[in-house]
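pipeline/complex-builder :: batch 7 item 3
reading input block
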Amino acid sequence: MTIFDEGRGREMDRRSFMSGTLAGAAALGGLGPFAGAVAQSTEMTALMVNAMLGPTLKPIVEEEAKVTIKEGAFLSGTDTVSRLTAPGGARYDLMNSSFAFSHPVVMGPKAGAERVQPIDVSLIPNMKYINEPSKEGIGERDGKVYMIPHSWGFDSILYNRDVVPDNDPYTQSWSLLFEDKYAGKIGWWDVAHQMLMAAGLYLGHAEPEKMDRNQLGEVAKFLISKKKNVRTFYTTFAQGSNLLASGEIAVGYGIVPMRVELKKRGFNITGAWPKEGVLSLISASYIPKDSKNVSAAHAVINAMLGERYAKALSDGCGYLSASKFAQENLTDAYKKEYGYGIFDGSVKHYQLKFPTNMNMWIETWSRVKSA
Amino acid sequence: MAAVSSVPPRRRDLRALLVIPGALWLLAFAVAPLAILFAMSFWTSSIFGTTTDLTLDNYRVIADDPIYFQVLLQTLRIALTVTALSLLVGYPMAYFLASLRGPKRGVFLVLLFLPFWSSYVVRTFVWLPMLGRNGLVNAVLLQLGIISEPLDWLLYNEGATHIGLVYVYTLFMTLPLYLSLDRIDRNLIDAAADLGAGPFRAFFRVVFPLSMPGVLSGCVMVFLLACGAYVTPQLLGGTSGMMFGNVIAPQYTVTNNWALGAALSVILVIVVFLCLVIFGRRVRLNDIFIGG
């Protein structure tokens, strides 16, 4: 006899339950491949900023390209190129990330070292509509095209206007993201490239991507000294948006789609236009070598340069289409709101470029985070 | 021993075959991944990919930068505190469960398990609306007039990491404790009472020592799990409640530095293994893993 003598004899019940659960899971697992095979015919996979295929945009692309798109969860440009080079292959039919940042990785150091396959431009008739500034985002080598731009985006500081007034001089600079005035209300995006670029620009580096070890050390020292002002890091755009929406932070590093989405949901959130320049990017598409649906990938690239998608893009997610169609009949207020000044030079911007020594950047950011 | 030797040699040989599935499972899912991890820690990674070029650079990077050592120490400290707190929370619960009889015990066991039917991430995430600036706790305190401004320190710090980890790992402490307490012979308590021991003395001299296998088992499990925690410190820890898992994970998921991630993982495995060895010198492994 034991003091706590009940509860015996339940072992079989628990085991039965467990084995039943496992059997159910196995049965479902067994159905998985079959279900996948059934739905495969026009399906393709894509990895890009998810907002580019938001609720108003994805149907346009799917309709025009006559495909069903399965999206991966986009984390950052760094993550995207990491996946491209990961052991085992990219496992996406189409990928899309910042041109200037991704170009060295995507194209490789020399001819033949490209990590993607050439794009058959005859299947992209809408390519002729790419506007002049965006042509810089075409990745070519030896007459072959490997990267095709489809939009512009930019990163800036998002802030809650209920806490930070628009006329606060801090909103005119990246200082808003670092300095003490809004201590405890700031969120940093947990990505080495963007955070060090922003800090580098703020600290006066004309070409932050070329910072050497000592300069990076100085930036790290600065960031560590300002970490006390930071409430938390966030790893995904959704997490950052939630932090802003819930009032946990009032200031945070953010991409345009975050601002647009929060505004749509009624939050008094806007983006700053720092005098050092917003961090801009030309979003370019490329087709990994192991793409299993190359024709669908081409069709999607073409659809994303088409008139319908181009005209819906800014309202849909805040990005600026690389297509000439997008800028027809826009009001000045609309252009100002979405930053179309990037095209005519009236909005100061600096492109997110690939750092000279990316590994050193990653080490530096790890040090900042861990300090 | 006597039972084993009484089995005819041929049958004994056949019984040895039963070890094969388990051994294969261990080989495939424990030994092989660890071996790959170990090998990878000497490979070369960059944003352009990982190659099998052998190097000691990953360990050099870790040795050169004291930050990694500091985060490792912080991780062990947090894991220890979480283990102690889980024991404090789990013991009374286990004692209460073990003292119940009949259907009541089943009901309370289900209640204990109920939150664990949802995913780990959801269970961690639930603390955000509870402890946040505009969360439940602040709302109640404001409503009661106890505070005039929301408290910021409830979330995004080491304390929040502790709360989250204790919550998600308490079950791993409570179950072995419950099993251990459930096995204690009631006659021993009665005998202690007959010999003049009060309830407290009987608990500390009889029940607690006899529940030690459960205590050890729970503590080791919680400690091991807490050492490898990633999601909870990521979601609740803010800038100060980071743990070693938060240094390892981005090497794989963000920066493509698999080799450095592997080297960091190897170090964590070795440190945790050493902790187990040191612990194992004081208690038998059997006591730890099967609750005595």
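note: Residues 155-279+354-370 of chain A form a domain with the D-Maltodextrin-Binding Protein; domain 2 fold (CATH 3.40.190.10).
queue -> next item
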